[in-house]
Structure formats: structure tokens, C-alpha cells
Write a structure and sequence with these properties.
Elements: H1 8-32, H2 35-45, H3 51-84, H4 88-114, H5 116-119, H6 126-146
């Protein structure tokens, strides 16, 4: 017999967190694989480097970026699953991370909408603005849904398993 059922809002919040992490990672990967931009930025920062050094630096940066993106996706997924199992510490961690992300997203959107970003010389591409809007909405919704079933966090529950945990 399966353990207690995860409330629907908590389960939806879990998938919203995972979806937000996937969307953010997709944006990061699209920026990471813009090799021409990375090479031109490396050349701008240090024009004395040879082409082999620039290529090695860009390749190392891409590899490091992939590792970081994978670690962030894994961390969000593990936190979301722990939250769905009723771990209050995971809910708090996701709330802190989500509140920071939502605040930053709103800041970017307001800066773009008011023209402050353009006057400061920051160029925001439409794709970046769209992804910022989507992740901000996903994370804000996930935070709200996590707290709709707060009694769920008074006990530990089993998620995606046939046997209950103790």
C-alpha cells in the first residue's frame, strides 16, 4: 500500500520548479553555444591572446558552464522532490531561491520596460525577456502553490514510490 498522497498543489509546484529550471537551463545553453559571441568577448577582453589560447579558453568556459548548468538543474530537481516528500527545509530553500529569482526577474522586466536598461547600455534580447517572464511566472506560481497545502509539511510522505518511508 502506498503512503500518504501528495496534495495536488504541491505536486504541481514540484513540476513548476523543474520546468522553470529546464527553461532557465535552455536559455543558458543557447547563450553558451553562441561561440562567435564568446570568441569576440574573449578577444575584446584580452586582444593579446593568440587564436589557440582564445579557443582553449572558450572551450574550457563552455565545459565549465555545462557542468554548472547540470549541477543547478540537479539541485532544483532534488529540492523540488524533497519538497514534495514533505521536507520543510526544502520548501524554505526553494522559497528563498525563488524569491531571489522572481525579484531579479521583475527588476529586469521593469528596467527594460522603463528604458533604464537601454539608457545604461544593457541590451536585452526579446528571447531573454520572454524567458525571464516565463521563469518569473513559473517560480512565483510554484511558491504560492507550495504554501497552499502547508499541513502537508507537518509529516513526511512518499513520492513516486510503492513503499512508504519511515
Amino acid at each position: 500500500m502506498a503512503g500518504p498522497v501528495v496534495p495536488r498543489p504541491v505536486d504541481v509546484a514540484r513540476w513548476l520548479w523543474i520546468a522553470s529550471a529546464c527553461v532557465g537551463m535552455a536559455r543558458f545553453l543557447s547563450q553558451l553555444f553562441d561561440r562567435e559571441l564568446l570568441v569576440s568577448e574573449a578577444r575584446r577582453q584580452n586582444p593579446a591572446l593568440g587564436q589557440d589560447q582564445v579557443d582553449a579558453g572558450v572551450n574550457g568556459g563552455i565545459l565549465f558552464g555545462l557542468l554548472i548548468a547540470l549541477a543547478i538543474l540537479l539541485a532544483y530537481t532534488r529540492l523540488a522532490n524533497a519538497m514534495a516528500r514533505g521536507r520543510n527545509w526544502a520548501r524554505i530553500a526553494l522559497t528563498v531561491l525563488g524569491a531571489a529569482s522572481v525579484s531579479f526577474g521583475l527588476f529586469r522586466l521593469v528596467a527594460w520596460g522603463s528604458g533604464v536598461a537601454a539608457s545604461a547600455g544593457v541590451q536585452l534580447r526579446p528571447v531573454d525577456l520572454g524567458v525571464t517572464l516565463v521563469t518569473t511566472v513559473l517560480e512565483a506560481s510554484a511558491i504560492v502553490l507550495m504554501y497552499r497545502s502547508s499541513s502537508h509539511f507537518a509529516k513526511h510522505v512518499t513520492v513516486d514510490s510503492a513503499s512508504p518511508r519511515t
